[in-house]
Amino acid sequence: MSKKNRFVYIYELLDTHHGPQNWWPADTPFEVMVGAVLVQNTTWRNASAAITCLKNARLMSPSAIRNTPIYDLADFIVSSGYFNIKAQRLMALCEWLEESGGIDQIQRQSLKALRRNLLSVHGIGPETADDILLYAFDRPVFVIDSYTRRLFSRLGLIRREADYESLRGCFEKALERDMGVFNQYHALIVVHAKGTCKKQPRCEACCLAVLCDGVQKNIL
Fold first, then answer.
1. The domain over range 29-135 is classified in CATH as 1.10.340.30
2. How far apart are CA 146 and CA 167, in angstroms?
3. What's the CATH number of domain 3-22+143-216, 1.10.3720.10, 1.20.1250.20, 3.40.50.1820, 1.10.1670.10?
4. How does pLDDT run across 149-188, given as a tens digit for each residue?
5. How far apart are CA 142 and CA 148, in angstroms?
């Protein structure tokens, strides 16, 4: 089986095993963006708790966040960790959104321009930018995260330490350029890596075990 076909086959196996994931859990594109910042270097549970605090305080809009003193904003997002840093990043994101004309206006930008502009925002790196592109703006961009690196390096398809853009290119070349597929595939990777292909993997429960270099070589 070719490497390209293995990427597709893995998607099919994960999709059959785990089913639809319906990501990203958010009410609005802006909430997706906020979540993408808050989940940096923490769990979704912690980020979600911070989002709930922001919603309860009626701070789920760019203007509301920009009009909040940064030390108060930090207090609302304590559960996400690194809250002072993330408060600054949320402020920078909201400033960019408003100065760029809002989400509807930004949506008109080409994928290349939008990604470049997102990466120019303080605190927005490649993974966060691609989360926002895929889940807030419905653009066909594949998100690479630590779960992707762990799972696919164990499967022998990538080097875990490879640079972000090279890994993104591997997936985007192997798969049909479809936002729905990229959305579901990334969600499936996260679910599988959190529940089965953990740091201490549960290989006996893995639907990908027959394809896994680690299992076949008995090194996991």
1. yes
2. 12
3. 1.10.1670.10
4. 999 999 999 999 999 999 999 999 999 999 999 999 999 9
5. 11
Would you give the DSSP letter of residue 208? T
Question: How many angstroms separate the Cα of 76 from the Cα of each of 43, 88, 100, 179?
Answer: 17, 13, 26, 33
- CB–CB of 63/92 below 8 Å? no
Q: Are 186 and 134 in contact (CB under 8 A)?
A: yes
Question: What's the CA gap between 101 and 79, in Å, rounded?
Answer: 31
Cα-only R_g, the chain: 18
Q: Check if the beta carbon of residue 201 is closer than 8 Å to that of residue 220.
A: yes
